[in-house]
Amino acid sequence: MGKIKDDYSCALLLTMDLLGGKWKLRILWHIINGDNRFSLLRKSIPDITNKMLITQLKELEESGILVRKDFKEVPLRIEYSILDEYKGIIYIIDDLCNFTKKYALKNKIKID
Predict the structure, then answer these.
(1) CA distance 15 to 34
(2) pTM here?
């Protein structure tokens, strides 16, 4: 994610800066569905590297979409959650998945 600017010509450009890329929507979807710890996210998204997951979580936290809670326990326990006002993103992700399923069906693309 690039630095969030103070001015955008349209909301879609800000959306792309906030959520664009290969991983962020997947990470948010898994967090909303209960995979809210680093180890759970790694298991749910096996093709992401540790470094990339750390980077993406940090960017989502810095943008104010995610909250990171450190329970100050041994062993280390950190959980991520989406701020309540942004939890509606699950509906947007669902709509995108429905769009993609229709596209895949029409174009004979297999989705597992």
Answers:
(1) 24
(2) 0.87
Amino acid of residue 31 = I
Q: Could you tell me which residues come within 8 angstroms of residue 88 by beta carbon, excluding any fewer than 6 positions away?
A: none
- Tell me the mean pLDDT per 10 residues along the chain, length 112: 82 93 96 94 96 97 95 92 94 95 97 88
Task: Indicate the average pLDDT of the chain.
Answer: 94
Q: Phi/psi of residue 55, each to 5°? A: -60, -45
The verdict on residue 97 lying in a domain is no
- Rounded-to-integer distance, Cα 50 and Cα 22, Å: 15
Q: Please return the burial class of 90, using the count of CB atoms within 10 Å of its CB with bins 0-12, 13-18 and 19+.
A: middle
Within-domain flag for 15: yes
